[in-house]
Specification:
The chain contains five helices and three strands, in the order H-H-E-H-H-E-E-H. It is of the alpha+beta class. Strands 1-3-2 form a three-stranded antiparallel sheet. The longest helix has 13 residues. It is globular and about 50 Å long.
């Protein structure tokens, strides 16, 4: 039997909190993304600073591969655009920041938690 990758497709009736947990899991499954998070830290870093840091750490990424990782972290709500710098002659460069330093998933609906 051949070992094939089968993606984890959520059922149609998947619970919203499970879906949020899954988004975090998908966003954090690559070491590169953890490196991005740790490098940004509590400050803000430009795309080129992050890319250069990853290269110095031995990552061999194309720019499109790099932006894919940033996009996945942004989609999960882990990082966000902190601003832009326009140096002229092209699209402005993005600065990134962490939107959160902690991830929590409530096992109870919000109204149940406030009743406790």
């Amino acid at each position: 039997m051949k070992n094939e990758h089968v993606p984890c497709t959520p059922p149609d009736d998947a619970h919203p909190r499970w879906l949020q947990l899954r988004r975090y899991g998908k966003a954090l499954r690559f070491r590169t993304r953890w490196s991005i998070i740790e490098f940004i830290g509590t400050g803000r870093k430009s795309s080129s600073d992050i890319y250069e840091h990853l290269s110095e750490e031995g990552e061999d990424l194309s720019w499109s591969g790099f932006y894919y990782h940033l996009r996945e972290l942004k989609k999960a709500g882990i990082i966000g655009v902190a601003g832009y710098i326009d140096e002229g002659g092209g699209a402005p460069e993005k600065y990134w920041r962490l939107k959160t330093t902690r991830i929590t998933i409530s096992l109870l609906p919000e109204e149940k938690e406030t009743e406790r």
